[in-house]
């Protein structure tokens, strides 16, 4: 099986550790992962804000980059949802038959990480060890667009040492919503405050989700409240083992605080000059 990692631009720019954890996890399960260096954005922000014409080149680039792979795995429910549910609409609106056919090939093979683990690999126990009290936030795209259902919960329950506690009102939106948080800041903050209150009610050490974008919103508010609750992408929990339990992110400063603004930190994805190249994910994350 030829599998490619779609890193997503948000993870590449702000949370490369989540993408690296995805590769480590998949390779531990025997999956050889490629990282096409010519990948860019899925076009989610353009589509969400009405710039559908401007999203067309991004949809075309995605098809050109990932066509031919048996599966494309993304550590992002929102980006995977955009590809699965909107790329075909963009191609149809432009009347591009070749692009429409390409999307029909690639989009059904694009999976959010937990989908791929459970539905394609048939795995729930991925050999993870994470001795912490955890609660899980089902982001709107994972819940409503992709319909992940209980897949993330089944994976988390199989992690040794992990105590999973229910999040009250878990299906309520956190208030991020991409550009919604910018256009409707007051409402966004109020929704986030509700989510933070519910997270703190659980007594969890770590809040986990399948989207770093939502975790950034909630995590910022948790940090300002000095709650002591960490946020962590589910890939990093599932990639954790007994060997590295002592240095897990649950005991470290928030990921963005570790590297943000540090010019010495390498990004995972390539630059436009890397187009046409493809690397093994191990090579990129080494």
Fraction of residues in helix: 40-55%
Shape from CA axes? globular
What is the count of distinct domains?
2
**Which consecutive residue ranges, at least 5 long each, have pLDDT under 50?**
252-277
Give the overall pLDDT as a whole number: 85
Structural class: alpha/beta
CA-based gyration radius:
18 Å
Largest sheet: 5 strands, mixed
Supply the number of helical segments: 15
Order of helices and strands: EHHEHHEHHEHEHHEHHEHEHHEH
Q: How widely separated are the two ends?
A: 22 Å
Strand % is 5-15%
The count of β-strands is 9
The strands making up the biggest β-sheet line up spatially as: 4-3-1-2-9
Task: Describe what you observe in this structure.
- It is a single chain.
- Helix content is 49%, strand content 11%.
- By secondary structure, it is of the alpha/beta class.
- The protein has 2 domains: 140 residues; 122 residues, 3-Layer(aba) Sandwich (Rossmann fold), CATH 3.40.50.
- It has a 5-stranded mixed sheet, sandwiched between helices. A 4-stranded parallel sheet has the order 6-5-7-8, sandwiched between helices.
- The longest helix has 18 residues.
- The protein is globular.
